[in-house]
Design a protein that fits this description.
The structure is a single chain. The protein is 16% helix and 36% strand. It is built from two helices and eight strands; from the N terminus they run βαββββαβββ. It has helices spanning 13-24, 68-81, and strands at 3-9, 30-31, 35-41, 44-50, 57-65, 86-93, 96-104, 110-119. It has an eight-stranded mixed beta sheet, covered by helices on one side. The chain starts with a strand and ends in a 43-residue tail after the last strand. The relative contact order is 0.17.
């Protein structure tokens, strides 16, 4: 069974945990110094927030699957949606190790489809996929790649404005 995944980058983790704890009526299942996650059943969503190196706003969206077979079964439709699909095996990120596919929608929002293999003690690295982490900046046309910073420490370049 699939679960919607939403990852939001926040400026103030403690304030955001308080807000979402109240909004969801539940404690996060994972709380770290730079990250928190709720695994909600109603609605069925993996909702994560982090204060980790990305601009505030929607970081990425996704679909979490429960098995490797489910993940592999989605490959064809993901490649059909975005021919630039990226596959990662045992990728360490967000205190977990996962197999995943990344695609980007026409507005530049990164979509992660993943199967979590287990937890790890560190955050890991954000995936530098297309416009991952800059979803707050809509991207259009063939210049899309220019709006992604060369390095994580650089802000997005506003080269897409016409």
């Amino acid at each position: 069974m699939k679960r919607l995944h939403v990852h939001v980058s926040v400026k103030d983790l403690a304030a955001s945990i308080g807000f979402y704890r109240t909004l969801f009526g539940a404690e996060p299942v994972v709380t770290k110094s730079d990250y928190a996650k709720w695994m909600l059943e109603d609605p069925r969503v993996n909702f994560a927030i982090s204060s980790h190196r990305q601009p505030a706003g929607v970081n990425h969206l996704g679909i979490q699957v429960e098995t490797d077979e489910e993940l592999r079964g989605m490959r064809a439709q993901l490649e059909a949606a975005d021919a630039r699909m990226v596959e990662e095996i045992e990728q360490p990120c967000c205190y977990a190790k996962s197999d995943k596919y990344w695609v980007t929608d026409p507005t530049g929002i990164a979509w992660e489809t993943f199967h979590t293999l287990g937890g790890i003690p560190v955050y890991g690295e954000d995936t530098p996929v297309f416009n991952h982490g800059s979803s707050v900046v809509p991207v259009e046309g063939p210049a899309a790649g220019c709006c992604v910073p060369e390095q994580k420490s650089q802000p997005p370049v506003n080269c897409c404005a016409k």
